[in-house]
Specification:
By secondary structure, the protein is of the alpha+beta class. It contains two helices and ten strands; from the N terminus they run αβββββαβββββ. Strands 3, 4, 5, 6, 7 and 10 form a six-stranded antiparallel beta sheet that branches. The protein has a two-stranded antiparallel ribbon with strand order 1-2. A hairpin with a 5-residue loop joins β8 and β9. It is elongated and about 60 Å long.
Length: about 140
């Protein structure tokens, strides 16, 4: 593990330049704990991308998203976290008039709901790793 006392800001710049996922910052005198602690912080170098909500899961919460790639529009993953109640209500209002198609455990629509998504990294399959809602566009 790399340890750099009093050089956290410089280390963060290197993490961003190298497109690394993030770092852990801790109080100097704190010891390791096997649970979450205010003395240890996980600082994530989020990436941001424009995406489109194209459906939602029916048995558990999840927004199904698509993203634009060099190969065209494709599936980007499912947002399970970071969606506040007001945004869930807003999406419900927007899709009321849409024609919907039910498939397995999801409902889909053709119209685009443009959003911004923050995520940690790209998976090996080209999906967004732990995508989170960041706002409507």
């Amino acid at each position: 593990m790399l340890f750099i006392k009093e050089e956290g800001e410089r280390l963060w710049q290197v993490i961003q330049q190298r497109d690394m996922e993030g770092m852990v910052a801790k109080k100097y005198e704190s010891t390791y704990q096997s649970r979450r602690s205010k003395d240890w912080l996980k600082i994530i170098n989020y990436k941001y991308i424009d995406a489109y909500v194209k459906g939602m899961m029916t048995e558990e919460f999840g927004w199904i998203i698509e993203i634009d790639t060099n190969e065209g529009r494709q599936y980007g993953g499912v947002i399970h976290v970071g969606v506040p109640l007001w945004a869930k209500s807003e999406l419900s209002m927007r899709i009321k008039a849409f024609t919907k198609e039910r498939k397995k455990k999801a409902v889909y629509w053709k119209e685009d709901i443009p959003i911004t998504v923050k995520f940690r990294a790209w998976t090996e399959n080209g999906l967004l790793r732990i995508p989170e809602f960041d706002g409507f566009r």
